[in-house]
Amino acid sequence: MDWPTRVDAALALQQALRTQVHLCDEPELPRTVAGVDGGFVDNGATVRAAAVLLRLPDLQPVAQAVAYVPVRFPYVPSLLSFREAPAIIAALEQLGQRPDLVICDGQGLAHPRRFGLACHLGVYCDLPTIGCAKTRLIGQHEPLGNERGACTALMHEGEQLGWVLRTRSGVKPVYVSPGHRVSLARAANLVMACTTRYRLPEPTRLAHQVASGKTVSVPSDKQNSQ
DNA sequence: GCGACAG
DNA sequence: ATCTTGTCGC
Questions:
Q1: In the structure, how far is the CA atom of residue A170 from the C1' atom of nucleotide C9, in angstroms?
Q2: How many CB atoms lie within 10 A of CB A154?
Q3: What domains are there in chain A, each with its CATH number?
Q4: Distance CA A201, CA A218 (A)
Q5: For the segment A45-78, what is each residue's pLDDT rounded down to a tens digit?
Q6: Residue A105 is assigned to a ligand binding site
Q7: How far apart are CA A199 and CA A149, in angstroms?
Q8: pLDDT per residue over A120-163, tens digit each?
Q9: Which bases of chain C are contacted by protein, using any atom under 7 A from a CB?
Q10: Nearest residue to nucleotide C10 when comparing alpha carbons to its C1'?
Q11: Which of A6, A50, A86, A200 could form a disulfide with A205 if both were Cys (CB 3.0 to 4.6 A apart)?
């Protein structure tokens, strides 16, 4: 499959693929989780995507991969997938094994057309995915408690699209929404299960470091790159 | 027409 | 996203 270069084609593709999203949980709990994220190099001309695989429930990193792909789409709010997904997919393919779950740095269902980056990656790769964004794209919500674990529904046009989740006491919350093959209810629980002492869950926190050019130590150093 | 707007 | 160190506070 190739990726659209124009906004109108991208919008049409989201409308077509949104029908493929399935929001039901897998029968088995995930035993591995991959965090993915994209960074930029070459003055923004190239996406450097990272995928870090962790074992559950201990969250130990077991593998990592990096991929470089030329940028082919401008940054347009709600069309982030077309900028980062190609590179993220390449990184996931080089991981050596398919993760049981993928956590993305961006929205899933909490998107104008209900098809954020996490949904796109999930449908494309046919993998369970969750979106965990640092800021809001759409939706409203009630104030939430100040303690770790506090959570409130993210609503939009009368329907719940995700959760606003406080992963650390006294720190800005994250915006969690299911991407594919994960239920709204379990999405927040899985993100909490992947979070330790930082605001972001370990999978995306580590993927962000790798995508930003930093180093992450993986015990059995089986990393790949391209 | 005026804001809002994942990374 | 990205340019960037130390510092204040729980």
A1: 12
A2: 25
A3: 27-201 (3.30.2170.10)
A4: 17
A5: 999 999 999 999 999 999 999 999 999 999 999 9
A6: yes
A7: 11
A8: 999 999 999 999 999 999 999 999 999 999 999 999 999 999 99
A9: 1-2, 10
A10: A170
A11: A200
